[in-house]
Design a protein that fits this description.
This protein is mainly α. Helices cover 72% and strands 0% of the residues. The protein is built from six helices and no strands. It has helices at 3-6, 22-52, 65-90, 95-116, 122-141, 143-148.
Length: 151
C-alpha cells in the first residue's frame, strides 16, 4: 500500500497504529462515552442535591435557578444523546460519524454556556473542551473511522 493510500494505517495520522480504528477502537470509544455519561449523571444528581441543601457542601446559597436549569437540561441532553449514539455505532452505520461530530460540538458549546453562567472556570472550560474537540476532529479527518462505520 502506498503511503498516500495508507490513510489511518500510518502511526500518528489519526493517532492509531496498524489496524486503525476497527472494532476494538469502537469498544474503547463506547467505554469512554459510558464513563462520560455516568460522570455527567453523577454531576447532575450532585448539583440537584446541593441546590436543595447548599449547606451540605458548606455553602449558604447555590447558583440561580436559571443556571441550574440550563446545567441539568444540557447535561441530561448529553446523557440521552450518548444513548442515542450507541444505536448507529453498534450497527456500524455511517450516520454515527455525523452524530459523533454533533455530540462533540454540543459538548463544548454547553461548556461555554456553563462558563457564561459562572458555573465553569476558564481553566475547567479549557481542560474539559479538549476531548470533544479532538474526537470531533478525529471523526471528521480519519478515513479509517469512516470506513469502519460504513453502512
Amino acid at each position: 500500500m502506498a503511503p498516500a493510500e495508507a490513510g489511518c494505517h500510518q502511526v500518528g495520522r489519526c493517532g492509531v497504529e496498524a489496524e486503525g480504528w476497527g472494532p476494538r477502537g469502537l469498544v474503547v470509544y463506547f467505554v469512554a462515552l459510558v464513563g462520560l455519561a455516568l460522570h455527567g449523571l453523577a454531576l447532575t444528581i450532585a448539583s440537584l442535591i446541593i441546590a436543595a441543601d447548599p449547606s451540605l457542601v458548606g455553602l449558604t446559597s447555590f447558583v440561580p435557578a436559571r443556571a441550574l436549569t440550563f446545567y441539568v437540561t444540557s447535561n441530561a441532553s448529553l446523557i440521552l444523546y450518548t444513548v442515542v449514539l450507541f444505536v448507529p455505532m453498534g450497527k456500524r452505520k455511517r450516520s454515527a460519524v455525523a452524530h459523533n461530530v454533533v455530540f462533540n460540538v454540543l459538548s463544548p458549546a454547553f461548556l461555554l454556556g456553563w462558563h457564561a453562567m459562572d458555573m465553569k472556570s476558564t481553566v475547567g472550560l479549557a481542560i474539559d473542551a479538549i476531548p470533544p474537540v479532538l474526537m470531533a476532529a478525529y471523526f471528521v479527518t480519519c478515513r479509517q473511522a469512516r470506513t469502519t462505520l460504513r453502512n
